[in-house]
Every structure is written in C-alpha cells, then in structure tokens.
Design a protein that fits this description.
Layout (H helix, E strand, L loop, with lengths): L7 H12 L3 E4 L2 E3 L22 H23 L9 H8 L6 H18 L11 H10 L3 H15 L4 E8 L2 E8 L10 E7 L6 H4 L3 H11 L3 H9 L2
Antiparallel strand pairs: 1-2, 3-4, 3-5
Helix pairs in contact: 1-4, 2-4, 3-4, 6-8
The chain binds fe (ii) ion.
Fe (ii) ion (FE2) binds next to helix 2.
Length: 233
C-alpha cells in the first residue's frame, strides 16, 4: 500500500469519523452501523518498521483486528444493536455482564482503529502547540513526567490492556484499562493509546514489553492525531 492511498487527508477523515462515532471503511463510504468494517490502515504495513514489523502488523491488523470486526458483526446481526454506531454499541454494553462478548469485540474494534491512527513513521518525541501547553499544565514536571507516567501505565498494566492519554474534566490524564476496556465508558475523551496486549509486540520483542513501549512513545506517537482529538474534546 502506498502512502498516497492512506493520505493525511484520508487519515484526518478517518479520525474525525471516529470522533463522531462512525468509521470510514472505504473512500467516500461512512459506516454508522453494522455491518461494521475493518478500516484501512493509515499507512503501509511496513511503515512503522523497525519499531513494529510488517509481520506484527500483518497478524495484529489482518488477523486480530479483523476477527474483532467479524465477531462483532455476527453478534449484533438481527439484534437491536444492528443499527447502532460502534460507539453506541460500546456505551450500551459497557458494564453489562450479559453483553460482555459484544462489548469486548466492539471496544476492541474501536481501540485498534484508534491505536493505528495514533502512530506514524518518524513520530514520537515531544508534542508542540496546545497539546504541549496542556501537558505542561496537567502534569507536574511537564512532558518528562507525562512520559514517565504513560510508560509506567503501559508497562504496569497486568496482563492484556491499554495505556491511554485522555482528557477528563478539563485536564489531561494517563489511565490504563484491562482487556478491551475504553475510558470513554467513564466519560473520558481518549487522545492516544498504546496496545499492550502481547499480540502487539511479542513477535518483535517477546517478553520485553518495556522496549516496545519506549520505542512507541519515542518514535511512533502521532501527536497530530492526539491534537485533533483534543480539539474535539
Ligand atoms: Fe491489539
């Protein structure tokens, strides 16, 4: 896949659609409800090398992410959730043990699309502009404190889950969630996430989660994506 196919313009459209509770599946096609689609990656599957290999993306995006989409579509077909947007399915099933299967697959679809969009080749490092200012205002110690907190959350999440930068009641925070959970179910606005399920890094890093986390933070974070999410918060 060439960069031109997944241009910044397309990427922005996709992120805006995610923010609006919909998903962009193909040029000009906005899906608000089932059948949910596997959104295109915003870059080639080798674009994040050497931090994340094409082989990892092949399995992670092509197998895991796709499976969540396929499972979700099977689960909501013919139910009162068939016409709901992805975000509505997530919010409608959060905390409901009887709907845990639907929630897990729906949230994993959303989380992964958000994760892919939150990375780019030659990303990482310190943000600029409003995001820099908000991080400085929200974390005593500024970027260095934020970076340490994000890395600690990602490394400290026991088992599978996610580390997030969120906007919450006017402040930016770092939170972690287990399995498929997403901070939006607690009223927070996700700005960025790091997948710390083993399938995200095991082929490249085996058990060295810290190496994966540090490399993502320093080399891949897409601050433009986080800034757009902050602007919409
Ligand atoms: Fe994942």
């Amino acid at each position: 896949m060439s960069e031109s196919v997944f241009s910044r313009r397309r990427f922005l459209t996709a992120s805006a659609a995610i923010a609006a509770g919909t998903l962009v599946g193909a040029p000009g096609i906005v899906r608000a409800a089932a059948p949910h689609i596997l959104p295109p990656l915003p870059y080639a599957d080798s674009a994040l090398e050497p931090v994340i290999s094409a082989k990892t993306i092949g399995f992670h995006y092509g197998k895991h992410h796709k499976a969540y989409v396929d499972n979700l579509n099977k689960m909501v077909a013919g139910t009162d959730m068939a016409d709901m947007s992805l975000e509505k399915v997530i919010l409608a099933t959060a905390g409901n043990a009887d709907k845990a299967g639907v929630f897990n697959n729906a949230a994993q679809v959303w989380n992964h699309t958000f994760y892919w969009a939150g990375m780019k080749a030659s990303g990482g490092g310190k943000p600029t502009g409003l995001l820099r200012d908000r991080i400085e205002a929200s974390f005593a110690g500024g970027y260095d404190a934020f970076r340490k907190e994000l890395a600690s959350a990602a490394m400290g999440q026991f088992g599978s889950g996610w580390a997030w930068l969120v906007a919450d009641a006017g402040k930016l925070k770092v939170v972690k969630t287990g399995n498929a959970d997403n901070p939006m179910t607690k009223g927070m606005k996700p700005l960025l996430t790091i997948d710390v399920w083993e399938h995200a890094y095991y082929l490249d890093y085996q058990n060295r989660r810290a190496d994966y986390v540090n490399a993502v933070i320093d080399k891949l974070i897409n601050w433009d994506f986080a800034a757009e999410n902050l602007a919409n918060a």
